[in-house]
Amino acid sequence: MYTPPKSKHIPQATIKRLATYVQVLESLQRDNIDLVASRPLAEACGVQGSQVRKDLAYFGEFGIRGVGYQVKNLILAITTSLGVDHEWPMVLLGVGNLGRAIINHIGFHAHGFRIQAIFDCDPEKIGKTAHGFEILPPEALAPIVAMHKIEIGIVTTKPNSAQLAADTLVSAGISAILNFSPARIKVPESIHVEYVDFFRQLYSLVFDIVRDKTSVWDDNDS
Amino acid sequence: MYTPPKSKHIPQATIKRLATYVQVLESLQRDNIDLVASRPLAEACGVQGSQVRKDLAYFGEFGIRGVGYQVKNLILAITTSLGVDHEWPMVLLGVGNLGRAIINHIGFHAHGFRIQAIFDCDPEKIGKTAHGFEILPPEALAPIVAMHKIEIGIVTTKPNSAQLAADTLVSAGISAILNFSPARIKVPESIHVEYVDFFRQLYSLVFDIVRDKTSVWDDNDS
DNA sequence: CAATGTGAAGTACTTCACAGCC
DNA sequence: GGCTGTGAAGTACTTCACATTG
Fold first, then answer.
1. Sheet with A133-136, side-by-side order of all strands
2. Coil, strand, or helix at residue A206?
């Protein structure tokens, strides 16, 4: 059951961190730890204790003063607050290497993100199967989205097909897109898009490495 | 050749955006566009024009007033500033589905990120090949890292092996880790880590979808 | 008495607005 | 005339510090 958040605006950064908290809490659960304070939880996530408490406070009071948080309770509180406490069927467009890896990604299923059907434009691929799914043509998308009330579409096409895939998803009635292709896409205001682009992170790592090296050389004047 | 940045501190967010700018600039280049102003570039990246100009200003003056930026020039200026204008050899630990997809990921090679060798702990896998690479045992890591002066390691193991993989990389002398496994890892201060975790983004999409729905119901009082 | 929940203070990032230049 | 480069103003997020409570 969904409980509305206490506060009106919640930072994007908070939502992303909450996902991390769940990840760490689940690993604590596997180790049979059922109580945790904000500080150790925060440390495992690479943030401050006060950050954890503030993030949670946007949604309610889930802790016990002087004690901490019950792991099981807190996982449920966060997943319920975010809306990830039930199944989310999804469709995937673009059955290349990356697409196949995503289809097979075990973690999805365990967290309620279930791929319902997969699609590709390539006539060579249509009709064949990948990890037990029949590869369908784009025309088959809209009825499946409607029938299963699917709201999330995954794009794993090559960059030059990403916009077409996005357009197809939008006209099929999807409301959010997870884009793995290294291309920006244009969609109506009302559609939510997230980009999974590890080049951003690789660039960031390289910059950090280079910065480290140069700061060793010139640690003299300003 | 590397030019040091004009300013001392540069926001992480700026670095990540610069990677996006390069991506969009490269697609402009493919369309034979060789001049672009901050505004249209910014729109394609989903940010403000002033943001683009400020981000670039951290590193120098690359534009022509009244005109805009030369696409080719700007790509070079950004890649040089970040240190991604030359090859970065990498190693990969964990040859499962995801690992194989990453090895085969064509974009890496095109951007100078070259996988040099791949490793796995599973005796069943060691000695076999994946996409033309022989799967090596962890013991072989340190000498290869040293020989090729490798600084970046990719972790694509299952979550319960991620810490072991990270420890192996650190003791082999790596200085940055790109972690695809859905587990937090502990490393010394001096090691840079970036997490590629699309659950964060999926959670964020779900929250946006749910928020949209509820805000339609209660658009009355505060 | 230990750890939460939270206003208030601090910091970091973004946008504005316009002078400077092509 | 149009667009860059940039201080100054604004906004958003993070951390502090402490009153509160099991």
1. A129-130, A133-136, A113-119, A88-93, A152-155, A176-179, A192-195
2. helix
Residue A38 shares a structural domain with residue A71: yes
pTM of the model: 0.93
Helix, strand, coil proportions of chain A in percent (round to 5)?
45, 15, 35
CA of B41, C1' of C8: distance in angstroms? 39
Q: Which helix (H) or strand (E) holds B102?
A: helix B97-103
Neighbours of A67 (CB within 10 A): 10
| Residue range A123-181, pLDDT digits in tens | 999 999 999 999 999 999 999 999 999 999 999 999 999 999 999 999 999 999 999 99
Look at residues A12, A211, A51 and name the one whose alpha carbon lies nearest to residue B203.
A12
Q: Is residue A97, in this structure, part of any structural domain at all?
A: yes
CB contact under 8 Å between B152 and A205, yes or no, is yes
Task: Specify whether B78 is located in the same domain as B92.
Answer: no
Give the domain extent around B47.
Answer: 12-82
Looking at the partner chain, which of B23, B101, B207 has a beta carbon nearest the beta carbon of A82?
Answer: B207
Same domain, A126 and A190: yes
Supply the DSSP symbol for A137: P
